């Protein structure tokens, strides 16, 4: 699939995400300087409230899973059809490799090898 | 002169990471071609955003013509984790000039954060508050004995780093990753235009996410967050504006918090 958005819109998206991502990165690094100038004491190490920090801890697994699962799992009318989907089988093999090696390159290699085997050979 | 030493140390420590970054960047370049972005727009994402997972998600949603606020919000949610890095690394950078801080912040990534904080060792409070870069010259005369012994026991070499050394080390790691990311993006753009669509190269995108997801699910609460978030995203995949991703992620985060509370 290719986007149908005009180039200007894509550029607006690129710049908006760029500015907001920089704001996230700079947030506390900038804030510490401001706090220092105001107060002079350095009891501000606990900059992120504990409750926010706890929630942020679950952002990576939750977001990544929400990206991966729909790309790998296609719900078909029957359980057998759902489970025999070639993307699910390739994803399952890749997950096993990711588990064992934690290596991005090996995960891609095995996942694509299984996908191509199922698509072109079986 | 410590400056080049620490810069070189940073680059040297970053080299093993290239193996993981290069395929990721190439996949992004290929996916950008698939999504119909121009080469300039793809490089624009890599330069202005410089955060792989959010860049891939952006491509994915743009290709599906998702609503623009959803595209931007999704990328921001993915990058929110860097709030933690920013807060955690801020005390090490507090004595640097504002413009230097802004530049270092722009280069902040998962890898630069993890390597640098590990290299710096535990934060020394007296230095965190000081504004001078040369404290290590006479530190032995100033410090109470107990504190010094404690710190010597943990890590002798890293704790003697001055703020300037820390900046050079961070720069060595972060800037080399930045350069590799840009080169990899361009390589992917070149490769992507030459590969037929029937190869299904776009499947490499979820595979990269999968390689990041598995190590992120390291205990019961994080596994609950991933499993619930993923299942909810599949169930809500048909929602308009591609809201399924945000709904799945949000429910997953709540599931993680609930699982954490259940264990206590």
Automatic annotation (TrEMBL), chain A:
Annotated keywords: Membrane, Transmembrane, Transmembrane helix
Keyword Membrane: yes
Keyword Membrane on entry: yes
Residues spanning the membrane: 12-35, 55-75, 104-121
Pfam families to which the protein is assigned, alphabetical: AzlD
InterPro entries from the UniProt entry: Brnchd-chn_aa_trnsp_AzlD
Domain of life according to the entry: Archaea
Protein name, per record: Branched-chain amino acid ABC transporter permease
Organism for this UniProt entry: Haloprofundus marisrubri
TrEMBL record, chain B:
One GO term of the biological process aspect: L-valine transmembrane transport
Biased composition regions of type Basic and acidic residues, renumbered to the chain: 128-152
TM stretches of this protein: 14-33, 39-59, 66-87, 168-192, 199-217, 237-259
InterPro entries the record matches: Brnchd-chn_aa_trnsp_permease
Pfam families xrefs: AzlC (PF03591)
GO cellular component: plasma membrane
Membrane-protein topology: Multi-pass membrane protein
Protein name from the UniProt record: Branched-chain amino acid ABC transporter permease
